[in-house]
Specification:
Shape of chain A: elongated
Radius of gyration of chain B: 21 Å
Strand content of chain B: under 5%
Structural class of chain A: mainly alpha
CATH topology of the largest domain in chain B: Rna Polymerase Sigma Factor, Chain: A
Order of helices and strands of chain B: HHHHHHHEHHHHH
Number of helices of chain A: 5
Strand content of chain A: under 5%
Oligomer: heterodimer
Number of domains of chain B: 2
Distance between the termini of chain B: 64 Å
Order of helices and strands of chain A: HHHEHH
CATH superfamily of the largest domain in chain B: RNA polymerase sigma factor, region 2, helix turn helix motif
């Protein structure tokens, strides 16, 4: 497969070609096979970007970096435990509430119906959220990378 | 004694690495593999040397992407936390950073698409202008140029932006970029060249840079 030597202009300017490639590049440049205009333009671009650098971070940020990351690890575990506990307690509470209201013949029918409707609605909402989360998981951009 | 003798490794891990990595780097890879195995056994303290080793590189990359130091630190820490949680599914025979880099990169992309916060310009002059030597006009021109470069970088594709940040602002060699993105060095050459061309195109669309002829006529 033939090589597009113009695509090596950046590598040439960055000093990333080995001796053989460099000699071949310069021979082709002399022969006019590589665009000198492109080389000049690319040199200008390189000079421009080289004249800037990313801002640096204050040193104290590095001192606390691991501590903050570790807190995040702990917090994530904490949230998982809290969520699990909350789901179990809420489910049991809801079940008890429903059993008491719905089976209690002393309560007026409309109150039991309203409670049943509320519980059913919450159930639908919960299923809907779970379904949405599962759908998001299927299209989650992170899913493919956390392997 | 070389690291080859001290730690047993799968052939996959070694393949090609002895050729591309200097002995010191190879030792660090072996050490890293041991640390990852310890993390996988639930020793979170073993993650600290890995975080410490890569935190600067990760935060700088995120800064190049999101343009705000506070967010960059936050995103890089979140990427470390996510990678730790996913470590159980990670193959310790593979290098950590390329895998981590993809998590960080995706977090940055996600952040950019969701965040409404105005992006700051995280660039500064590589050689600071001396306060005595530069006129206010020169300062203003440099500030404008900085904004121009940053705006143009924001307009190129994610793939172009990634390689431009790694090369132009993190000063990684082509080999380091190739290892990080897990692509051949030749692909880095062409991808970077095309990214620079497109960056130039964006800059010229926003505000054309003076051509050589204009430069020469000004000098005359």
């Amino acid at each position: 497969m033939s090589r597009d030597w113009n695509e090596l202009i950046s590598a040439y300017l960055d000093g990333e070609l080995d001796a053989v490639e460099r000699a071949e590049f310069e021979r082709r440049l002399e022969a006019g096979e590589i665009s000198r205009t492109e080389l000049k333009e690319m040199q200008k671009m390189r000079d421009l970007t080289d004249s800037f650098r990313l801002q640096s971070f204050p040193d104290h940020e590095w001192d606390r970096y691991w501590e903050r990351t570790y807190n995040r690890l702990e917090r994530n575990l904490g949230w998982i435990l809290v969520s699990l506990g909350a789901i179990v307690l809420l489910s049991v509470g809801l079940y008890e509430l429903l059993r008491e209201w719905l089976l209690d013949g002393a309560s007026p029918w409309w109150l039991r119906a309203a409670t049943g409707s509320l519980a059913l609605g919450l159930g639908f909402l919960f299923v809907s959220v779970v379904r949405e989360r599962l759908f998001v998981r299927r299209t989650d951009p992170y899913r493919g990378i956390e392997r | 004694m070389t690291a080859t003798l001290s730690i047993s490794m799968s052939p996959d891990y070694r393949q090609g690495r002895e050729e591309t990595l200097p002995p010191r780097e190879l030792d660090l890879c072996l050490e890293e593999r041991e640390l990852i195995l310890r993390c996988q056994r639930g020793e979170s303290a073993a993650f600290e040397p890995i975080v410490t080793r890569y935190m600067r590189r990760a935060a700088a990359f995120a800064l190049g992407w999101v343009g705000n130091r506070e967010d960059a630190l936050d995103l890089s820490q979140e990427a470390f936390a996510r990678s730790y949680r996913a470590l159980s599914r990670f193959d310790a025979d593979r290098p950590f950073y390329p895998w981590f880099h993809r998590i960080l990169r995706n977090l940055c992309i996600n952040y950019i698409s969701r965040s409404r916060r105005k992006r700051e310009i995280p660039l500064e002059d590589a050689i600071p202008m001396r306060s005595s030597g530069a006129s206010p006009q020169e300062y203003a021109e440099r500030a404008e140029l900085r904004k121009l470069v940053w705006d143009a970088i924001a307009l190129v594709s994610e793939q172009d932006r990634e390689i431009l940040i790694l090369r132009e602002f993190q000063d990684l060699s082509y080999l380091e970029i190739a290892n990080m993105l897990e692509i051949p060095k030749g692909t880095v050459m062409s991808r970077l060249h095309n990214a620079r061309r497109r960056l130039r195109g964006q800059i010229n669309e926003i505000a054309p840079l003076p051509s050589d002829d204009e430069d020469e006529s000004e000098e005359d």
